[in-house]
Design brief:
By secondary structure, this protein is α/β, with parallel strands linked by helices. It folds into two domains: 141 residues, Nucleotidyltransferase, domain 5 (2-Layer Sandwich); 40 residues, no CATH class. The protein is built from six helices and five strands. It has a five-stranded mixed sheet, sandwiched between helices.
């Protein structure tokens, strides 16, 4: 059972998805849940099925005091780096909260202060605290929706299934068709022995 909150303050949980992808944005969400939240199926987005994630999303959004979701796209990832882009996405999601949190719980071990609001980084926090788990589900489902949308433009990369992650079939498609505008050019799109002039 995940804990509802970390402190007695009004907490926002935040998490991001898509750091290891070869294409598409890194997406983050921030969620403030009430202490009375009733989401028994809530868990780390990686530990539940896609169907469960999409079933939970409207329940999270209905019960949340406030939530925000934000993308940082591949152009900015290439200009800065994936860590900075991930933290920026979390900041943008936090900026969208209608209710200002008093404390921020961050999944992982790296974050930059968001204004003067104190924060705590928690490794595997999405498996420990409900507000981080809720953020992980929103981030994952909204990013999946985006990848399915751009899959319609470039169906040969298989983004509807692989969501931009470096699967064998994704890399085989890059080898065959080259990269496109949605790929992260600063990432190693192909193993060194298969590298092409992309």
């Amino acid at each position: 059972m995940l804990d509802v909150q970390f402190t007695s303050l009004l907490e926002a949980g935040t998490d991001e998805v898509g750091r290891g992808c070869l294409a598409g944005p890194v997406t983050a969400a921030a969620v403030i849940l009430p202490s009375t939240v009733d989401l028994p199926q809530l868990n780390d987005s990686k530990k539940i099925s896609e169907k469960q994630r999409f079933e939970l999303r409207p329940l999270i959004e209905k019960q949340a005091i406030s939530f925000g979701v934000a993308h940082v796209f591949q152009e900015e990832i290439d200009e800065t780096n994936i860590l900075r882009a991930s933290i920026k996405a979390m900041h943008l999601a936090l900026e969208k909260l209608i209710k200002k949190p008093e404390y921020i719980l961050v999944d992982g071990n790296r974050f930059h202060a968001f204004g003067k609001i104190p924060h705590q980084c928690i490794i595997k926090g999405d498996g420990k605290y409900q507000n981080i788990a809720a953020a992980s589900i929103l981030a994952k489902t909204y990013r999946d929706d985006y990848m399915k949308k751009i899959d319609a433009e470039f169906p040969y990369y298989g983004w509807e299934k692989n969501k931009g992650y470096p699967t064998h079939s994704h890399r085989e498609a890059i080898k065959k068709f080259g990269s496109c505008l949605h790929h992260r050019k600063s990432f190693q799109l192909l193993p060194k022995q298969l590298q092409l002039d992309l």
